[in-house]
Model the fold of this input.
Amino acid sequence: MTSTDTVDTVAHAAATPDHPQPYRELGLRAEEYARIREILGRRPTDAELAMYSVMWSEHCSYKSSKVHLRYFAETTTDEMRAKMLAGIGENAGVVDVGDGWAVTFKAESHNHPSYVEPVQGAATGVGGIVRDILAMGARPLAVQDSIRFGPADAPDTRRVLPGVVAGVGGYGNCLGLPNVGGEVVFDATYAGNPLVNALCVGAMRAQDLHLAHATGRGNKVILFGARTGLDGIGGVSVLASDTFSGDEGGTGRKKLPSVQVGDPFTEKVLIECCLELFAAGLVVGIQDLGGAGLSCATSELASAGDGGMLVDLDRVPLRAKDMTPAEVLSSESQERMMAVVRPDDVADFLAVCRKWDVLATEIGEVTDSGRLVITWHGSVVVDVPPRTVAHEGPVYRRPVARPVAQDALVADSPDRLARPATPDELRTTVLRMVASPNLASRRWVTQQYDRYVRGGTVLAQPADAGMIRIDERTGRGVAVATDCNARFVALDPYAGAQLALAEAYRNVAVTGAVPAAVTDCLNFGSPEDPGVMWQFREALHGLADGCRALGIPVTGGNVSFYNSTGDTAILPTPLVGVLGVIDDVRHRIATAIGPGQELFLLGTTRDEFGGSEWAHVAHGHLGGRPPSVDLAAERLLARTLHAASRAGLVAAAHDLSDGGLAQAVVEAALIGGTGCRITLPAGADPFVWLFAESAGRALVAVPADAADRFAELCAERGQPATRIGDVPAESADVVIDGVATFGLAELAAAWEGTLPKLFG
Amino acid sequence: MSRIGVVTFPGSLDDVDTVRAVRLVGAEPVALWHGDADLRSVDAVILPGGFSYGDYLRAGAIARFAPVMGEVVAAAGRGLPLLGICNGFQVLCEAGLLPGALTRNESLHFVCRDQPLRVDNPDTVWTSRYARDAEIVIPLKHMEGCYVADADTLRRLSGEGRVVFRYLGNPNGSRDDIAGVTDATGRIVGLMPHPEHAVDPLTGPGTDGLGMFQSVLDHLVAA
Done:
């Protein structure tokens, strides 16, 4: 185009086949551009090029991961599928949790925006995942955030972390969703590329499930929520007048930051408005506007329905002047939804929106033309088969190669590292570990999050999993945990992903809930690096095979590539979220231990230190093999805990993971506000027992008079269980017999002091 | 049955919790809508927590102009018991029904924690179930909870026994550790902590918040 006054219409595009287009600047390769021309039989208009370029991006099209993601479907058995009401490909997976309730949950990344602009990047990450849940017809009930940063003491971490926390908190708090857990992890590889993975869980009656379908010729398409502006336009700005109207002088036209700006109040109102619309039966299909904005919503809705849609782009309410059709289509302005509504219901639909002061505009209708046709100032600017935009993007089989350095990494065993041996050395190590940034209390972060709102929060940080009551009458609820030890994944992506799954599964199990479904957020480096693709493929296979072994399906997820700083990729971080079901939250297992309880260590402790927190803290070492994976043992542990808790034999339980037994004991004591006494088995190597990170273990507190019955129950089931100590009355010390005694105040100072010292 | 109204503004968040607390003590919760200038014959009104209208200007600054607020102010003038929790407290201060103002926490961070409080005044219609100087634990969660007023007002509030709750361990920089205050009649109370989140040990730190809802019910039943 040569001027902002002239619009690049379909007719104009057909008449000017040789007009040069900036497809490279938009991230398209020459063959991708050629493919678009082939699909259309002409060159695309500016607006079409904008649509294809955002929808064919890695983020929207999964072009590098698609061939691998199929493995999830291939490994999902009918039995696993039985409880799934919606799976991968929908806005979020939906699981039948019994009593007519359906629960939907999903995690999504907002990594790159959170580095550029931590507050808004993180805030809109929360906003986006909440709308995904809402779009399924569910009331969003809770969020979690798994966030990863560079070294805790790096100056830039002091910029990024407080901003991300303020963004997650500011948005979620104002939205009225309790934040019930997550992770905060520090590692040098995240220095220029923090990870912000937000998870949302929502619930609905199973019959109220809404899917993103635009069906019914003549049904109206309504855009509602916030106005559309220039925020989040990103690369599409190269199509704007700056480049093509001869406006190189820069007369001040629109250059807004590519990170979107969130308005949680608008989203809160939008949630209530949508739920009222659903309840009144006024919605045929619905889709949230997230990445790729209207391009995504129109093409996905149309291709999932009757295959056609006619949209009058002039009707889209704008908040900026002189926007081009390409910009309107690509804008990622937040807090917008698109609904398909029967013509007879439009008036009622608009009335509900008016009640909530939500702007709603009819912008088009469903057709059976098989084409997505978009007009602007009376001319057609888009005329495409919607599936080619939404689903038939390029698919790449990227080269996959085990990195040459992998052998050396695995060979670099932690066995050579000097270990603390004397009681003094062990004591110092416990205190140093407890205060280390990855193990220290997360209170500085989590106390900036509302965990109470809506009155359904049964467990939240520092519990192992968040638990939410979904039915006040019956007490039915769900537990959710998100985990990933990325160092394990670096050492062995297949096993590491299974360890992430096992940890999240265990964290759900120790609350008394029964693990039921999995979501993931696969954060990796560049897919153009064969070594990264190897990590990705291995991790994905590990996760899928692990889910099959545990009998719980992956219901959805998210892939985030290109997480690297310069040439340094992040540690491969396949975040795993596990959802569990509990039929009555009054049966939940607490985390805090109390006087009059005996302590058991369930599971098997091995000399396993590859990728451990101890190796990291004491030696800055990463090498060797991760802990061994035994998913049958994880399943046994979960079932034993569930049976024992229902038999009234469990007072509290706490998962063992980073930092091993020592960390679990210190946390259980500090959370319970009581000391305890630990006696390691005769002949045990105290260092190994205190710090090894073997999987499949939990610390369990049992009422003293139930200890024998608990031990019998474990024995009957073949569950390894070791009596490891007790909680005396009025004890203010954590005593590890023959090793050290710690005052609670001393432990609390170490555990609680670190993050406030670093971040104020 | 006593009818207790709970107002929903756009952006109200803890209205569902407040309704639950009202129901738990055996009163009838009545939903009141910000846009309706109608109190539906309720016997008391609670303005719940949240971020009314987004609170982008000043917390509570827009909500005080909502149609329902005209009725609330008029009814309060006739002696209707009125409680403002968190954002509701901010609205009452903005509306001039309670003295002082709530400003940004001294830490400049949002804070959510289980907060020990001392009951300084058990003689209001909302606190009669508590013993004087009782120590209770109620969750708080806010960004703008730092109570401020001029020196004269602070002196008068303390002198007249109108400080209802004080923080034990000040979480936000509030003057004189003030967590909640009352008007001269003891019928209008505002506080930053959330008693509706302390009504069930399963979902909160305990049941210390129930007393506020029971107190007003006692008052209504006796009246």
Notes: DSSP finds 27 helices and 28 strands in chain A. The two ends of chain A are 52 Å apart (CA to CA). The first helix of chain A runs from residue 10 to 15.
